[in-house]
Amino acid sequence: MLEAKGITVERSGRKLLDDVSVEIAPERVTAIVGPNGAGKSTLIKVLAGEIVATHGDVLIDGRNLKSFRAAELAARRAIVPQSTFLSFPFSVIEVVTLGASVPGFDQNPEHSKRIAEDALSDVGLTDFRDRLYSQLSGGERQRVHVARALCQLNTGIRRQGHTAVLLLDEPTSSLDLSHQSLVLGEARSQADEGRAVAVVLHDLNLAAAWADDIILMSSGAIAARGPPSEIFRDDLLSAVFGCQIRANIPPPAGTPYMLPHFLRSGPARPADREAEAGSKHRSIEYAADQRGTAQVRD
């Protein structure tokens, strides 16, 4: 369990977070949503230990984040930030393998290579392994860093029963529909394997499709928390976002709209995972208006 208790973050006399308490549970995907400036990225950075709160504590399995040694913490949590700048001419596989290069990790080169290759496969980038990172698109770079985080968590040495945490800050912002499904499907798989997953999302449809729990933020505080069916209400969302939002209501007649239906399934058995390894793209249905439904299946 990853917990934040009474977190307040002040900068230049302004509260970015104000007495925030959240729980990120294992085996669940928690989506953090809200308007710009609500404090979503600040919260995810506090949970990761990148920002030290002015007041309050962050705990993993009841232990304060401040008490962890660097390698120990790296084995327990990985973060994919909104953006990452790399000035060195690294290849894709070299960037992913950075996740295995933490002092104190398993430094067996062959083992690290296998884990990095598996992580690349998980995000659909196997064919990109030898390309220069600097030559990739923004969406491809995002997927590289998701693979790096997976490599980190799969290489770090943890005791049985210790919670591992994956934190994703807007990992789908530069991705097309298919790759949004791929990345969030991998987040779902990580939760199914027992990890605690928190993801900052702007797209409420994605949050509704993939998350078990929603944390709705506004002005540095928690406006509401709970399952999507309880949080995604017209009145609550309209008040927080400052515009009219209507859930499950199509637009006026004659206005077409596209709504990808991300089809989720339950946790796969080990044998099923192996069989599905070559088809990480989740099925997507594109729902149109009354004129019909077009379907695309990978």
User: What's the number of structural domains?
Assistant: 1
Q: Give the proportion of residues in helices.
A: 25-40%
Which geometry do the CA atoms define? globular
Look at the structure and name the CATH superfamily: P-loop containing nucleotide triphosphate hydrolases
Q: Quickly name the level 1 CATH class.
A: Alpha Beta
CATH topology call: Rossmann fold
Keywords for this entry:
disordered C terminus; single chain; Rossmann fold; 298 residues; 24% strand; 6-stranded mixed sheet; 4-stranded antiparallel sheet; globular; 13 strands; alpha/beta
Overview of the structural elements:
The chain is globular, with a radius of gyration of 19 Å. With 298 residues, it is an alpha/beta fold. It has 10 helices and 13 strands. The protein has a single domain (2-255), classed as 3-Layer(aba) Sandwich (Rossmann fold). The protein is 32% helix and 24% strand. The strands form 3 sheets. A 6-stranded mixed sheet has the order 6-7-8-3-9-10, with helices on both faces. Strands 2-1-4-5 form a 4-stranded antiparallel sheet, with helices on one face. Helix 4 (109-122) packs across helix 5 (138-155). It starts with a strand and ends with a strand. The longest helix is centred in the middle third of the chain and has 18 residues, at 138-155.
